[in-house]
Design brief:
The structure is a homodimer of 128-residue chains.
Chain A: H1 2-21, H2 25-29, E1 32-39, E2 46-47, H3 48-61, E3 66-77, E4 80-91, E5 94-108, E6 111-121
Parallel strand pairs in A: 1-6
Antiparallel strand pairs in A: 1-2, 3-4, 4-5, 5-6
């Protein structure tokens, strides 16, 4: 059961990566639940599918070409699930950032959707 | 029910703030579940109570004197709960950082404990 949930979430992540790689912010945003929320570094919270689409559109416009998501753990939590993973963000051939994420997933219309999505860098602080 | 959970989690946060204010890293670490994990910015994941205690001890040694946690939302998730909130980190009278956090709580031995704890700054990137 838990491994089935993990497979489904990994499949949703592959959709995320594919949509991002073709720079389709609207398709990325559709992977979020209707009440979905981003908690991005250096930004206040971003709520709702429109805000989420504009956020990813802005990221793409800054030259980010691909995101890699690697699931480390999926724990069922009631009707939802909690995922911890690692990400890599590419700007063409260059690694723009790498870090980790914590996503609360929710099932909506039979599909797993990102409900709360937070991440931060694992790279040292630039100021230190 | 949900508001009761929220009250209990807010009470646990008050314990966190009080332990931090008296610079008691061991007491902060005890608020985490046995398999607890920190996902701090500019760091890899930190697992286990010993690692968590050393992390907060290191933060205190860097001159951080207080942390303020303000709950924005608590959603029950199976036996656990998911909290989104805002934090402020003080170094004496100076605001060292402010941002948001996503915590997955778990009940352990009748008490709410932090199971997954991630945060990031809401301040603009220093490089931009």
């Amino acid at each position: 059961m838990s491994s089935e949930v993990r497979s489904q979430i990994e499949a949703a992540n592959r959709e995320f990566m594919a949509a991002f790689a073709r720079q389709d912010a609207a398709a990325v945003a559709k992977l979020y639940a209707s009440g979905g929320q981003l908690l991005p570094p250096n930004s206040d919270m971003v709520s709702g599918v429109d805000g989420i689409r504009e956020f990813w559109k802005g990221t793409m416009a800054q030259g980010i070409t691909a995101v890699t998501l690697e699931t480390r753990e999926v724990e069922p939590a009631g009707d939802g699930a909690v995922e911890v993973g690692r990400y890599r963000i590419m700007a063409g051939d260059a690694l723009a950032d790498q870090g980790k994420y914590l996503v609360v997933w929710k099932k909506e219309g039979g599909a797993w959707r990102l409900h709360r999505d937070m991440w931060n860098t694992s790279q040292p602080a630039t100021g230190s």
